[in-house]
Amino acid sequence: MRLSSRGIRRIAPVANLYPREHARAFYEGMAARGEDEVLLFCRSAWAGSQRYGSAVWSGDIPSTFESFGVQVRAGLNMAMSGIPWWTTDIGGFSGGDPDDPAFRELLVRWFQYGVFCPLTRQHGDRLPVSAMGVAMTGGPNEVWSFGDDVYEILTEYLHMRERLRPYVHAQARHASLTGTPMMRPLLVEFPADPGSWEVDDQFMFGPDILVAPVLEQGAIQRAVYLPAGARWSNAWTGEVVESGTKVDVPAPLHQIPLFLRDGAELAVGRT
After folding, report:
1. Domain 58-129+138-261 classified CATH 3.20.20.80?
2. Which of 96, 184, 209, 243 has the highest local Cβ count within 10 Å?
3. How many CB atoms lie within 10 A of CB 12?
C-alpha cells in the first residue's frame, strides 16, 4: 500500500506508539492470566512504555569502541525519557573475536560500564560466526572465554556488582516508586552546576556513585568532571578530590574511574 502525503501526515504523530502498544498488549495479556509481576525485555520503546514493565536494551549493535560510546549516551537519553530499565549487549552484539587482544580490551571496558547499568548482561554473536539454523550458537562468550587475565578482571567486577546488590535494589525500588532513573546524567543530581550540563559521557549510578567509562581504545587515563556541590573521593584510592573541576584520572585496564559522593560507604573499588 502506498500512502499519500496526507496519509503520512495523519499517522506520523502516532507512528512511534507502536512499541508502547506492543508492550501494553503483552502486559495486559499477562495480567489477564493472573500475573502481577510482568517484565518485558525489548529493544524498542516509546514514552510510557515503562508503565507496562518494559526493560529495554539497545539491539544488535556493533562490537566497536565507537558503538560503545554511543550506548553510554543512548542510555542517558533513555533515562531522561522516563524509562529507567536499560541495558546493552556487553561487548556489542555483532562481531568480536575472543582471541583478539583489541576485542578483549573493548569487552573489559564495556563490562566495567555494564556493571553500573540498571541491568547487567553479556550477550553477542562472537566469531567464528555460525550458520543460521537451530544449531546456531555463535562463538564463545562466557566470562572465561577471553583469557585468564580478562577473566580475573571480569570476575572482580561481578563481585563488585554483587557487593552493590542492596544499593542496586534500593535504587530500583526508588525508580519504580518515583520514576527517577537509576543511571542519570550529572545534571539530574547537580542542576545548579553549569558544568554538569555539558557532560554526556559520565553519569551517576543512583545518588552516590559517579561513573566515568573509558571509551577510547588504548587509554590508560581519562578526564573526569566532578560536579560542584559535593565532596568527591576516588573509590579506588580514597583520595578526596576538588569538586567543580575536571581532573585526569588513572584508568589502567582493570580500573574504571569511580568516585563516591559525600563520604558514601559503599563497597566499590576498594575492598
Report:
1. yes
2. 96
3. 9
Domain ranges for the chain: 58-129+138-261
Element (H, E) at 259: strand 258-261
| Residue 159: band (very low, low, confident or very high) from pLDDT cuts 50, 70, 90 | very high
Smallest CA-to-CA distance from 56 within 28, 81, 31, 36 is with 81
- CA 210 to mean position of chain CA atoms: 13
Q: How far apart are CA 149 and CA 142, in angstroms?
A: 14
Question: What pLDDT score was predicted for residue 3?
Answer: 55
Whether the full predicted model's pTM is greater than 0.90, yes or no, is yes
Mean pLDDT over 258-265 rounds to 95
How far apart, in whole angstroms, are the C-alpha atoms of residue 180 and residue 8? 35
Confidence (pLDDT) at 7: 58
Tell how far CA 195 is from the center of its chain: 22
Q: Where are the beta strands (DSSP E) in 107-207?
A: 183-184, 203-205
CA 156 to chain centre: 18
Tally: H helices and E strands in the chain: 7, 11
Which cell is 246 given?
575536571
pLDDT over 70, % of the chain: 95
CA distance readout (Å), 158 to 54, 126, 153, 249, 254: 24, 21, 9, 23, 13
Of 56-60, 132-136, 183-187, least confident by mean pLDDT is: 132-136
Strand order in the sheet with 54-57: 40-42, 54-57, 86-87
* Average pLDDT of the residues in 118-143: 84
The three three-digit cell numbers of residue 138, written as one number: 555463535
Beta-carbon contacts of 29 under 8 Å, excluding residues fewer than 6 positions away, are: none
- Residue 256 corresponds to which cell in the numbers above? 574504571
Whether the predicted pLDDT of 192 surpasses 90: yes
